[in-house]
Each structure stands twice: as C-alpha cells, then as structure tokens.
C-alpha cells in the first residue's frame, strides 16, 4: 500500500527543483546549493527534487536563497516547489525543530535584485477559517508585487525577494488560520527570453 | 479580490513547463510544442508555464507528447505540471469539449523509449470515495513502473509512456470516484546526469 509520505504537523517542508536552462546547469545548481547556508534544515537531493524540512521560516529562507543564487548567474532559471505543512506521517527531520528562528540567509540575499514572474496555488487541505486572512495577505502583497489571475494559479510579477516574502506570509496565514494540512505550489521564472508579461492571448 | 482562476467541472487542464537544461532550450521547447498535435486542446504559453485545457484524455495526450519530444533530444529535461479538473469558475476553452475521444499523439509516441524518474502528489479537494480506487490504480501501475515513497510525493521510475499512462489512470480514478475538484502535481526528470535511483540518504 503506497501512500504519500509526509511529516508531523509542526514540521514544514518543501520539495523543489532548480532548472537552469544552460549547458552549465550542474555547476549552477551545485553553486547555488553550496552558497546557501542550509545548516538549520534537513536537506536531501535526489535526481528529481531536493527536499528541505525544518521550521517554516528556515524552509522559506533556504529555498529563496538557493533560487536567488542560481538566478543571479543571469541564466534562464526556473524554480518549481511544493511547500507543505501538517501532513501526518513520519517524524524524520524533527531534530531540526530545535533550531532558533533566526534565518541564516535573509540578510545575505535581501539586496539581490532579480525580477521574476511567478505563479502559485494554495491548497488548504485541513479545514480552518483562513480565506479572509489569505485575501488580506494577497492585498498586502500588492504593495510590493503585481498580482493577477492565471489559470489554476495566481500570478505574481516583481522582485524575487518580495515574492518569496509574500508567499511565506500567505502560507503562514493559512497555517495560523487553522488549516491543519497546507500545500502551496510555486513556479518561478527568472531571466526568461520570452518574458513580456503580456504575451498571453487572454 | 484575487482568487485562483479555474474552470468548469467537466474541463480538465494542466499548467506545465518543460525545462531543458541546455543552451538550446528555446529550440528544444519550440520543437516539442510544434511536434505535438495540439488541435484538440486550448493552449496558451506565457513566460512561466503553458496551459492546456480540454477533455482529460487530450490534456494527458498532449502533455505526454510534448515531454517525450523534448526528452528524446537526449538533453536533461525536467517536466513540471499541475493537472486539475473541477474547479468552478470561468468557462474559457469549453469549445474544445466537443472534440471526440481519439488522442492524436498516442500512436506517434508510444514506441519512444525514455526512462525517467518522476514524483507525483494527488490532492482530491472535492470529497468523494476514491482511496480504494487510487490504491488499486497504483497497484496496477506496479506492473509497469517502480513505485516508492518520497517526501510529500510518490516516486515512479520507469518508461515515460508507462508513467504518463499510470498518472492518467490514477487521476481518472479519483475523478470517477467522486472527487469534484482534483489536483495532481507531477515532476519528471529525463536524462539526468545524477540519476542513480538510490542516492537518497533514507
């Protein structure tokens, strides 16, 4: 009987990939992974995705840093992630829950300018009363990024750092609003040669 | 007020990306999009993802064909998709629901050999009694592909055509089991230089 394996409710995690559209993809991925400080999360990399688990603040801090370090190479880089919190199941990675709340990468990457286009979808699978909280967080995001509709997703255009900040706030608001199992999928594109922001036919 | 835009319950769709880790990424993506016959789906491409919508059979047929055409170049190619059916909302793309059930690409790609590693997660958001159906579909998949646990996902190793076939069956079983809103996320990796299948630390 195969089930999706997931973690205890206080452990956040992300399964993500960095895809540099470049012949130097190995160097870019390895460089980004090395440049980020991942000591406050449990991290595994296999041939499909990298998994990070730990406190929510560190999961976002580490994934943001890895993406920004890859994107600042100037190559077209895509980031694909599923963030998750609250799926009952195994207990691996719990040791990392003893870490403090001080993100290790935030200060180092906060001034990196990297315009990106992103799409995210939020799936609050565990009940709760969060819709008003989510909407107010998305409204707050509009001060920093452009928010628009997309099929199966909400589109965000702006600086990578602001977008990751907004995504973290929306995710936190959903969890704190009572969703006992929250999933958020994110696609981000940096340095795309086809970026126009308006080349969609709708 | 921004909400995730989605479609009427009989329209299936996918928001997906092909990421060739190659300096020739533009040619590979464009070539794959041109090589696939997409006349039975509504398709939009922007700088983050491509959206296809129509009947379920054609959504899987087209995404499978585009991935296989990109992967057969031999380059390291990642495929990231969110399949969705049943989110109430707009009605665009409905015209394509008049198409017949004959997939246009299946015969053309069925003999292409392409070993891949994949991870998928299924989110049945709309109730229903489908768990037994899903498990039996996953059991059936084991005849053709290797199924294992992954964090936040189920891992599949095998031929791309068999894996897409299995994913389509699991998704259909969930919908037919009564889930009124079904979401499935899929990550697939082809021709990865780091593919070992066993380089995970767990």
From TrEMBL, chains A, B:
Descriptive protein name: Uncharacterized protein YqgV (UPF0045/DUF77 family)
Native species: Oceanobacillus polygoni
Gene3D superfamilies named among the record's database cross-references: 3.30.70.930
Matching Pfam families: Ykof (PF07615)
Domain Thiamin/hydroxymethyl pyrimidine-binding YkoF putative residue range list: 11-90, 117-194
Matching InterPro entries: HMP/thiamine-bd, MTH1187/YkoF-like, Thiamin/HMP-bd_put_YkoF
Gene Ontology molecular functions: thiamine binding
Positions annotated to bind thiamine: 18, 50
